[in-house]
């Protein structure tokens, strides 16, 4: 399931819901991304996330579908927030449920890496020196490439 | 075509979206970018270094060599930084 929203979410509740009613699930893995208060030695008080609504949904659905094609997953959830988020706030939540832990761990990692380089979101940091757009990192591209099929 | 701009491309062009007819002689994204560069200060600034601009046609990531036709939704943006 994909949710793109301004509102915060309750990770505990989301995890309960993900596996509720399916006792074939043996493990749930999750990742939460947070707004850090420091970037390149500068204090960051908040971040504003912009996105491309139609395409965000489409890209996240494609990423989720790819994970299901690669691993035996019972359920997946991606929540990504947009708008203004203060330091410490939750930005993104990815959770994967499977009969066995390997699939859940790997698929969760894969979803985060792919999302970072394919989902159309852009972060603007608010610092004491003013607002600035966050630049994409080569290390994120490299992280995505590790999942390329050989 | 519907043309969309995000992040600093939106700030530099001063537009989030606009409707543009595919200019005569333009067949692909790179040709369209060259045409946009000639439209004025904001565009020249936004597309000054086209190598750092990413593009999607009909909400799919594509290369600059991707063909364009009227009716397409074309979006220009910097490399994504979500997650």
Automatic annotation (TrEMBL), chain A:
Catalytic activities: 2 [molybdopterin-synthase sulfur-carrier protein]-C-terminal-Gly-aminoethanethioate + cyclic pyranopterin phosphate + H2O = molybdopterin + 2 [molybdopterin-synthase sulfur-carrier protein]-C-terminal Gly-Gly + 2 H(+)
UniProtKB keywords: Molybdenum cofactor biosynthesis
Comp. bias regions, Basic and acidic residues: 134-144
Domain of life from the UniProt record: Bacteria
GO molecular function ontology, one term from the record: molybdopterin synthase activity
InterPro entries, sorted: MoaE_sf, Mopterin_biosynth_MoaE
Pathway: Cofactor biosynthesis; molybdopterin biosynthesis
EC number annotated for this UniProt entry: 2.8.1.12
Record GO biological process: Mo-molybdopterin cofactor biosynthetic process
UniProt region (Disordered), positions on chain: 130-150
UniProt similarity note: Belongs to the MoaE family.
Subunit structure: Heterotetramer of 2 MoaD subunits and 2 MoaE subunits. Also stable as homodimer. The enzyme changes between these two forms during catalysis.
Function: Converts molybdopterin precursor Z into molybdopterin. This requires the incorporation of two sulfur atoms into precursor Z to generate a dithiolene group. The sulfur is provided by MoaD.
Protein name: Molybdopterin synthase catalytic subunit
Organism: Magnetovibrio blakemorei
Lineage: Bacteria, Pseudomonadati, Pseudomonadota, Alphaproteobacteria, Rhodospirillales
Automatic annotation (TrEMBL), chain B:
A single GO BP: Mo-molybdopterin cofactor biosynthetic process
Matches recorded under Pfam families: ThiS (PF02597)
Family, similarity comment: Belongs to the MoaD family.
NCBIfam families registered for this protein in UniProt: moaD
Annotated organism of origin: Magnetovibrio blakemorei
Name of this protein: Molybdopterin synthase sulfur carrier subunit
Cellular component aspect of the GO annotation: molybdopterin adenylyltransferase complex
Gene3D superfamilies in UniProt: 3.10.20.30
Recorded coiled-coil stretches: none
Keyword DNA repair: no
One GO MF term attached to the UniProt entry: nucleotide binding
Entry keyword Nucleotide-binding: yes
Keywords noted in UniProt: Nucleotide-binding
InterPro entries noted in UniProt: Beta-grasp_dom_sf (IPR012675), MOCS2A (IPR044672), Mopterin_synth/thiamin_S_b (IPR016155), ThiS/MoaD-like (IPR003749)
